[in-house]
Design goal:
Number of helices of chain A: 23
Number of strands of chain A: 10
Bound molecules: iron/sulfur cluster
Radius of gyration of chain A: 26 Å
Shape of chain A: elongated
Strand content of chain B: 5-15%
Strand order of the largest sheet of chain A: 1-10-7-4-2-3
Largest sheet of chain B: 4 strands, parallel
Largest sheet of chain A: 6 strands, parallel
Number of strands of chain B: 8
Shape of chain B: globular
Strand order of the largest sheet of chain B: 2-1-3-4
Distance between the termini of chain B: 25 Å
Order of helices and strands of chain B: EHHEHHEHHHEHEHHEHHEHEH
Helix content of chain A: 40-55%
Oligomer: heterodimer
């Protein structure tokens, strides 16, 4: 994991909440996508059924992950693809650099992939002297701006067209424009040359099909297609959870993925890669798939949390989350922001530093409601809070309060006695208040008589 | 039919009128019920903050008090979801004693179990309904409160935009992340104000406490009222 600071979440929140430009950009992008999503989802009368099916396929796969991974490895190897297993980021990176050095790569084109973000691949390759260019427009923008992606499928969502125009003018020396078409043209012109000269193409994978050993990439710009076919060597970097059992399963995932990620009926391009060059001119001579664990087995070990591995990284939960809507992806300081990120980050990467994230949720359940594979994200957050308390994460004062509270609540006489004291304190004019509440909200008054007192009096009549 | 009334602790202490209204409704329909005095809190504050050990001991206490009843009714979607959805996380089958299946939020109990769709109340105001997250998404309660509200004489139910958006309360979330929490309240209040309603109502007093607290602090002119108080206005 790179350039982030998980401990700064609270600070970041304040910064984001007061940053009007950011909020405007977020608001625009999110409202637009969500309202379009409602439209394209409601066209399907069987959306709930599709979710259920997708959930079941993912569940079945994760329950039998080793089996399907072995099948995938076997089939892909038969097809001439080389499979490498990486337990962590360092190992994944070292595979890539070994390959790059062997083929003497100078220029690498890279299509969008969250796992490469996880392992900090671009920075690593650049450090090793291999120019590495993001070819997805959003990633390209983020790379130019030297930032992290703020959303997993829309990496530059936090930026306005004006900001992008200025960035291009400054970094690429072109005239300012804020026309999306012109901006795309500029990027395309710049990238075209890179595609043609690259020796190495790196991509992620949306799905790995166990039955056929296929790599499936879903995209909108065609850049993944170019990144994976033009250079003579193609490296796929994929999390071990990306596998699905059969090719036909794709019919379901294609229907739900585009709609969830970008509110499109279907994405524009799908690449299904089965084998390296079969004497065709435009395909790579070698294909490698690096299967990355990088903390995923931590999730797998927990009966409860392994659900998080069903995730197909569509990003819908982020858009739906009222917290993300306000603070944006960068505030989280993690590779995966938003609700699912608050589950993945502590378990997959950095338990202690990230424990604040599961608490940054009102548990409204919108993330679960929108998730196309029906992950109970909000319940997983609750579970993590419980783990956090077990690990002694909580402040002493909170622990003390809950201890005292429990004593009172366990015995209704003590509870009533406590309430009496509160009433007395109130009566003599002292107003106990919670600062973090009453700074912004009027604190409710304790009633002159509790319900049970009223009840008792009526009953005794 | 043995019915028990569960009045959440904060309603007991801060909003007893919600309990009184609930009693009035149940009595009107001749529903015989008891209010066990040993009850305190369902354990939700602890549970939601991660203190599952503490929550569990209250869950056990709750089951002990209530397991002999056929139904447990509560004027709170949130506390009901604690019992129905989250007790099963804490307790095993034996300990649960069917408590989850027997517990109902008030409006759901009236409409689904008692087949009552009007309480005969009258309330001459424009009202908008806030879907509390727990009632809506944990318990699937969407229509029941609306059916009852629509049948209140003179009441004009106006749907606000984004009635399903979270108000930002979220228990200790509202204390741990007050800035985000109040921003959510602000949005919620704006939707309600734009609808032209005079009152925001809900199945959950906790959401209303947060919304009302923000409205009062900022002198925003809209009132909150628990749905039981509207329904008991006969
Ligand atoms: S958790 Fe669900 S909604 Fe969120 S990114 Fe994953 S699949 Fe999409």
């Amino acid at each position: 994991m790179r350039n982030h600071d998980l401990t700064k979440f609270k600070e970041n929140v304040l910064w984001a909440l007061t940053n009007q430009t950011l909020r405007k950009n977020l608001n625009r992008a999110i409202t637009h996508t969500l309202s379009k999503r409602i439209e394209v989802v409601s066209e399907l009368t069987n959306w709930e059924e599709l979710r259920e099916k997708a959930h079941n396929i993912r569940k079945h796969t994760i329950e039998n992950l080793a089996y399907y991974l072995e099948n995938f490895e076997k089939k892909a190897t038969e097809n001439g693809i080389k499979i490498l297993w990486a337990k962590d980021a360092a190992e994944a990176r070292s595979y890539v650099i070994d390959i790059a050095r062997r083929i003497n790569a100078k220029l690498c084109v890279k299509s969008k992939s969250m796992v490469t973000e996880e392992i900090g691949l671009r920075e690593f390759l650049e450090e090793k002297g291999i120019e590495t260019v993001e070819t997805d427009l959003g990633e390209f923008i983020v790379q130019l701006a030297n930032e992290m992606p703020s959303h997993i499928t829309a990496p530059a969502m936090h930026k306005s067209r004006d900001e992008i125009g200025k960035l291009f003018a400054e970094k690429l020396g072109v005239d300012f424009t804020n026309e999306p078409e012109n901006l795309t043209k500029i990027a395309r012109r710049f990238l075209r040359e890179k595609f043609l000269n690259a020796d190495l193409g790196i991509s992620g994978a949306n799905f790995l099909v166990a039955e056929t050993g296929s790599i499936v990439i879903v995209e909108n710009e065609g850049n993944a297609g170019l990144s994976t076919t033009l250079p003579k060597v193609h490296i796929v970097i994929a999390g071990i959870e990306k596998v699905i059992p059969r090719l036909v399963d794709l019919t379901i995932f294609f229907k739900i993925l585009g709609r969830s990620a970008t509110a499109q009926r279907f994405t524009s391009y799908v690449s299904i890669i089965n084998a390296p060059r079969n004497k065709k001119p435009d395909s790579p001579e070698e294909i490698y798939v690096i299967l990355v664990d990088n903390g995923r087995t931590n999730l797998l070990r927990s009966e409860k949390l392994k659900q998080a591995l069903y995730c197909i990284k569509c990003g819908a939960c982020m858009l739906a989350c009222p917290i993300y809507q306000r603070v944006g992806g960068h505030a989280y300081g993690s590779i995966y922001p938003g609700p699912i990120g608050s589950v993945l980050t502590p378990v997959q990467f950095a338990f202690d530093e990230a424990l604040i994230l599961p608490f940054a949720s009102s548990l409204c359940g919108k993330c679960h409601e929108i998730c196309p594979v029906k992950i109970e994200i909000h319940h997983l957050l609750l579970w993590l809070r419980h783990k956090a308390v077990e690990q002694d994460f909580s402040p002493w004062i909170e622990k003390l309060i809950f201890k005292l509270w429990l004593i009172g609540m366990k015995n209704h006489k003590l509870y009533e006695f406590g309430a009496k004291i509160l009433r007395y304190i109130r009566k003599i004019g002292i107003k106990p208040e919670l600062k973090n509440w009453s700074k912004w909200r009027t604190f409710p008054e304790i009633a002159p008589k509790s319900f049970r007192e009223i009840w008792r009096r009526q009953e005794s009549k | 039919m043995k019915v028990a009334l569960f009045i959440p602790c904060y309603i007991d202490q801060f909003y007893p009128e919600v309990g009184v209204a609930t009693v009035k409704i149940l009595k009107k329909f001749g529903i015989k019920f008891d209010y066990p005095l040993e009850q305190t809190c369902c354990g939700q504050p602890a549970f939601n903050t991660g203190y599952w050990k503490e929550a569990k001991s209250l869950a056990i206490k709750f089951v002990k008090i209530f397991s002999n009843f056929d139904y447990i009714v509560s004027p709170s979607g949130s506390c009901t979801s604690m019992i129905k959805i989250f007790y099963p996380e804490l307790l095993n089958e034996d300990e649960l004693k069917n408590i989850a299946q027997k517990t109902f939020e008030l409006t759901e109990f009236l409409v689904k179990i008692m087949k009552i769709d009007s309480t005969g109340a009258e309330f001459d105001h424009k009202v908008t309904y806030h879907d509390s997250c727990h009632a809506l998404r944990e318990l699937g309660i969407k229509e029941e409160p609306r059916i009852l509200l629509r049948n209140v004489k003179k009441l004009k139910l106006i749907e606000m935009e984004n009635s399903e958006d979270c108000c930002g309360f979220g228990g200790t979330f509202s204390i741990k992340f007050p800035e985000i929490s109040i921003d959510m309240a602000k949005y919620k209040l704006n939707y309600a104000l734009n609808s032209g309603a005079e009152f925001i109502t809900s199945t959950d007093q906790s959401c209303l406490m947060h919304i009302d607290g923000y409205a009062r602090k900022n002198k925003i002119n809209i009132k909150t009222i628990h749905i039981a108080q509207i329904l008991a206005n006969f």
